[in-house]
């Protein structure tokens, strides 16, 4: 098989912790591992730009290094696998290991298929794979979690040497890059009140964003009454849904789970502006902050596993009705009527995009992008005659 000879202690090599218990050979009176692994990821962070239907995925590339420390080792196989694992945190009663951990091998590389005796040396195996854009991002939610990792396995032919296994986590992110602003309208019959809300289309974890609220038609000229805003509150909820169907051995134990956690909340009792001209309106600006030390996940949708994470912004405005005071008077009389205006807005929580360049946009320059070449030598300018110097 082709091998790539590389320096043993090259500065580009990154230390990777081995996760298996491997046996050891005693060579020359010292205990050393006969086989060692190292893994180098050459591609940038795995970020799928856009939604599940629009993303072109993320490109993964790297090098797997196999170090043979013994003089010669007969090898049975060397494999590398890209694994997706979905872990259920609240399994049903009687669930087995396969019900809790759903493992899906996305890609497998058989680096060594036949029995081969490897001499003492260093071997490098390049690998690359395009992760599909509809894959769910890595997350750790209250009901389940999604993770990706690379798993390399070297199986020696000798029975007294256990297989060597190395795993390395691969975080997969999703980023939706947009500067659009969502504008929503909520009406509250039988009153004429309506609320106009403006908020960004996407938000980021551990950040702040602003929402503008405008309460319209607060004056009823026929009844000579008006509505006053007493207070309003907001909270950001993280909703996790899981439809767990179990493994092939336990298909008759499906369960539907839902968990709601409050990420952030606040009560506001002042700071808005009231305008009683025409039909009247109340304007306010709310700062939604998720900077507290509360763990939160980004939006995730994995219909193949029945797993979903979404975020909902709930706003409640407490208004009371009062009689319009006569001209020249500032004393208003309450009518005793009050209402709670409750609204919900879905919030797309996504990772920051960084440079925001997808792998398919990083194309090499074409011939049209090459600048104009220097002028040619078709036109030769004659030089002046030089006098011969006579000594």
From TrEMBL:
Annotated ranges, domain LDB19 N-terminal: 78-252
MF annotations from Gene Ontology: protein-macromolecule adaptor activity; ubiquitin protein ligase binding
Annotated GO biological process: ubiquitin-dependent endocytosis
Cellular component GO terms held in the UniProt record: cytosol; plasma membrane
Pfam families: LDB19 (PF13002)
Signal peptide range: none
The protein's name in its UniProt record: LDB19 N-terminal domain-containing protein
